[in-house]
Design brief:
The protein is built from two helices and ten strands, in the order αβββββββββαβ. The chain is mostly beta strands.
Length: 234
């Protein structure tokens, strides 16, 4: 942002954007027996021209992002019941991306973006739904603040116990995508891949499968998310 200030002050080539998106989020590496869940982001930022022809851009932004995962298994102590669990992690995320904007028409552009992000975890919760019943519950534990063992009553689909450690509050990684701008409206596709771990070790799933993914992708679970977004360019 500081590097872009001279260009902004001289050329005033700056536009503000508001956008939101919805897609799928999960973890990769070190955790098996989980599935993706719906994720989303909402926020805004700036589109700053770095070159006289307007091709090269800098795009800092601020977003509220929900990531997470789902898993199916069992819940109970004396009576074990089929259950579905959905874990959502809410972050305040700051992406900083370098972009190349190509003109397709009078007010039509195709923009390619790549960069990095840093995010701070605000709240992490898990919802329980017992299959074929009306029972549902959101556990009142912030996963960024405390470890949680589901009262020693949660199991994955292979009947292995599930217990969450306190997740790392800070997340950082790579982010990128592309935008199609039509006048003031933006249609985008975004991919966000964490490079820091959500926890210091795997916390559920098949140990053999966890070890295999750890060899290929790294020892610790990380966030990954892909979504479609729509926005407005002021």
């Amino acid at each position: 942002m500081l590097a872009a200030l001279p260009a902004v002050m001289n050329g005033q080539d700056i536009h503000w954007q508001a956008r939101g998106g919805i897609g799928r989020s999960t973890l990769f590496a070190g955790v098996t027996n989980i599935e993706d869940r719906t994720g989303f982001h909402v926020g805004g930022g700036a589109d700053i021209g770095l070159s006289k022809n307007g091709v090269w851009r800098l795009q800092p932004s601020l977003q509220f992002v929900r990531k997470g995962w789902r898993f199916e298994g069992y819940y109970g102590s004396e009576q074990i019941m089929e259950a579905r669990f959905s874990t959502g992690l809410d972050y305040l995320q700051l992406p900083l991306q370098l972009a190349a904007r190509l003109r397709l028409g009078e007010r039509c552009f195709l923009t390619f973006r790549t960069g990095a992000y840093v995010a701070c975890g605000l709240s992490g919760k898990t919802r329980l739904d017992v299959v074929n019943t009306d029972r549902c519950e959101t556990f009142d534990v912030n996963h960024f603040s405390h470890a949680f063992d589901f009262h020693s009553c949660a199991y994955d689909r292979e009947s292995r116990p599930v217990s969450y450690p306190a997740f790392n509050r800070w997340d950082a990684g790579a982010i990128g995508g592309l935008d199609l701008t039509l006048g003031h409206f933006i249609i985008g596709y975004d991919v966000c891949v964490g490079l820091t771990s959500v926890s210091d070790a795997g916390f559920m799933g098949n140990p053999v499968g966890n070890a295999a993914t750890a060899v290929l992708l790294g020892a610790h679970p990380k966030n990954i998310m892909a979504d479609l977004s729509v926005g407005y360019r002021f």
